[in-house]
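User: I'm new to structure prediction. If I give you an amino acid sequence, what do you actually give back? Let's try with this one:
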Amino acid sequence: MPTKRPITAEDLYTLQFVEDPQISPDGSRVAFVKMTIDKLENKYRRNIWIAELNGRSRRLRQFTFGGGSAHSPRWSSDGSTLAFISNRDGKSQLYLIGLDGGEARAITSMPNGLSLPVWSAAGTRLAWSPDGKRIAFAAPVNAEERRREDSGREEAEAESLLELEQRKEREKEREKEKTDPRIITRLPYRSGTEFFDDRRWHIYVMDVPDAESKPPKPYRLTDGELDFTQITWTKDGQSIISAQSRTPDTDPWEHVDLIRLSAVGRRKPFRRLTKPGHDYAAPEVSPDGKWIATLRQVETGSSGRTQHLAVLPTGGGAARDLTLELDRTVEQFRWSADSRWLYFQAGDHGDTGIYRVRAAATQAGSAIEKVIGGRRTVLGFSLSKSNQLAFAACTPDRPVDLYTAQSDGKSEKRLSDFNGGLLAQLEIAKTEELNYAAPDGRAIQGWLIKPGKFRTGKKYPLAVNVHGGPHVMWGPSTPSMWLEMQLHAARGYAVFYCNPRGSDGYGEEHTTIITGDWGNHVMRDILTGVDRVAEKGFVDTTRMALTGGSYAGYMAAWIVGHDRRFACAWAQRGLYNMISFYGVTDIPHFLEREFDDAMPFDNLEKSWKQSPLAYVRDIRTPLAIEHQENDYRCPISDAEQLFTALKRLKRTVVFYRYPREGHEMSRSGEPRHRVDRLNRMTAWFDKCCMKR
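Assistant: Good question. You get back a string of structure tokens that encode the predicted 3D arrangement of the chain. For your 692 residues, that looks like this:
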């Protein structure tokens, strides 16, 4: 048998990922996105693949080719045609391709493309009408572009070459003027890695052309300085259900209601279907047309409040929560073909599975069944008319693969093995569960990965990883951390991580208990876990490293400001000054909800005491600060403050700044930056932990 080798950061370039599985209505095929990395171009490539489920072979074949990327595959109601979004010709447009072969063709030519804004909530970005004759999608347009559309003059009359060049130059100059200076009148005004322009997202609908016809002009259903990005049709095809902020002049994440739009005839004002008290997202009309299923969360208090699955009548009315009994945040859901069941995805104790609940269940006694369980993280699923499941999932020893199963979870099959060749070469370290009690008795779940070629009796350095959020959940199959933790183990480190209080997956009380206090109890939860690992006898406690990003960057700085057991720390894209952070982040409402619905200025003393920067004089641990220059979630100004203070105090500190990158760099940034970050982090650990 060939000798296996340790994993490296550069293996990122070889890994392949399955995304967005969509099973056909008759259950005979699964369309999905395969994501690869083009090392030479330093880009991600996405193409749509088809898994044929009829016959024994379960054949997989690439379905879209060419330049650019293709994603968001969606089946027509009869399963004969696939709609998808691609930027193969420049800007993202909507394409159709028949399952009987032929070339894909663009049916839209929207001047600003179709890529959704980074703040868009979960939900459908394009949707076929129930009869398959129309398709709805969202696209960005500004007030002038909408005015020209409504006047029927958005396309200028034929221009001479000179006039065309002159117009292009004028447009180029206008684009420059938008950034010199920027005039800000809305909040948030930037997110991801970009500033918002004056365009808003509106819903369009168009007739689906046949193969021989010129695509018709899409018709815009919405208007105003509002954003609409979620789309589901009513059964009769007369209306579209979407979502809209109750206070559209402020934050698009706040106080969101479900709304109903007319999809035929003259444009009409929308009608709100829900009342204040909850925020709503991802509406989906039942196949029988009677109900709207939706995700909803209480709109006040901690942002860690559990997001439940609820149903309400299509015409509006009181909503019923269906998942109160489970007390876990619902991430995604699908109706069964007979409208009797709702299948949904939720995390619990480190794993994410698929469950189902009867749509007619009452709030008091909804019997919830687990359909897809096990030690894994489900990343997305779909359901056919015959109630077959297709889902993507990551396991402790495998990155994301494609699976199918019956609606009761039986007859499960893994269809893809894109990483099989690479995995056959690699040493994959095993993950062990570690449960323990915090100092106040609270049960905490953690995990331990022993270093590669572990030998009893030898002492090893320890890499402690902390998750961000704070209201997220890690487990042994967390896809965003699979390579990183395996890399730490391959470099000779034992790896420990846990879900301290504040984490999702353990019920609302566990998640929201940190409201008003992000630092103290969470730190003790983590450090108690470090103590439990040390008691096992194979960790050299003088050679321990600490790292985490976002809220966990906060925690890394907080811990080294209160505890000196670590040989070094690496704080990633963190927030370190609660007072200044509030004024620069794209989610100021998040901080208000996390700290008793108050602005930091309402209690400066409390806000400062909850800031890691307040304890900078106590930081003696060598600290690497990693940040991204275009991070508008946790802007780099917080990192600059921490670095400046430590340098003035003559402490050991280094500052890594990544240009062009935002808050998601470690998960979806430029591939070379991701590899560089992993190598620099492990080099920092080695410098501080391996030469003692």
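You can read the tokens as a compact description of the fold. Here is one thing that stands out. The first helix runs from residue 143 to 151.
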